[in-house]
Amino acid sequence: MSVSIEKHEKNRIFSGIQPSGELHLGNYLGALKQFVDLQSEENECIYCIVDEHAITVPQDPKLLQKRILDLSALYISAGVDPKKSIIFVQSTVPAHAELSWILTCSSYTGELSRMTQFKSKSQGKESAPAGLFCYPVLMAADILVYDADEVPVGTDQTQHIELTRDIATRINNTRGETFVVPKGRYLKEGARIMALDDPSKKMSKSAENIHSRIGIMDDEKKIRKSIMRATTDSEAVVRFDPETKPGVSNLMNIYSVLTKESMADIETTYRGKGYGDFKKDLAGIVSEALSPIQSRFNEIRHSEELLTILKDGTEKASAIAVPVLRRAQERFGLGLPKRVD
Ligand code: AMP
Ligand code: TRP
Question: Is the pTM of this model over 0.90?
């Protein structure tokens, strides 16, 4: 008798962020804020710090350890509640890497070479690290090893989620029901925050110009400066039109997600006013949203409690992941045979 998928009661949510640099407003609105908002009676949330993904590019070990703590503290200060959700570090649950190998053997080089993130990161290089190539398979393992139903991410991750679904469906079809096929959960507005200096690119932690992004830990002065400098257009009318007014529309998007005001309401508020007033108000709104997160971060970042939360998270996560790994191993005939006949 083979082990079947064990039903879980609540809607199970899984997501992760890499501890590979300072997080920005795009990460907050596209991912972290969703993590917080999804905590409810109906959902069981599991949030991971994906350190094994971070080493697909070289990392300094001391700095990576610091960033793991930074990101854990940020999850909590943004509102992820360790009493309601599981918070843990990927490399402390070996089942991810183990399942990843099984999935690698059911993946194709063709589909992996089509991933745009791989293409852009390896562009112009004769040879790329194999870890960068296999990155999406490890991500699929992260999700599938928890029987996750939904994965909240920014729309830049759509391709990886689709690949996860493809791999899960392929194995279910060839080996019998093994995995829950998960769905991506994308926040409509705010799912993609663009760079302030160039609204044709997404806001990213690697861009050279620090005014292209707003860091979650930025102070009011820096926030104001970056927003006042943001690229707009010469029309000087606050109107939402991503095609012809991408800069202003990106700023309105940020405004709308943080205040929950509709685009029409924002247009009405700023009718007859220039971009200056709008930008000044937006800078205030962003500072106000980030400031409580920053103070909580400073309280928790160096507390022993943070380590206790992470250790507890590892235990809770393993309790879910190990049986799912065993199920997958059984489908492939791996592991110690039960009998010698
Ligand atoms: P990364 O920083 O690329 O590891 O992304 C961490 C999370 O933030 C992922 O869920 C991304 O989809 C999301 N994210 C990254 N950049 C942006 C952006 N500019 N706008 C919205 N979401 C983003
Ligand atoms: N690839 C994701 C990113 O760059 C991070 C990630 C790794 C992830 N594993 C995951 C996101 C599992 C959601 C679920 O943002």
Answer: yes
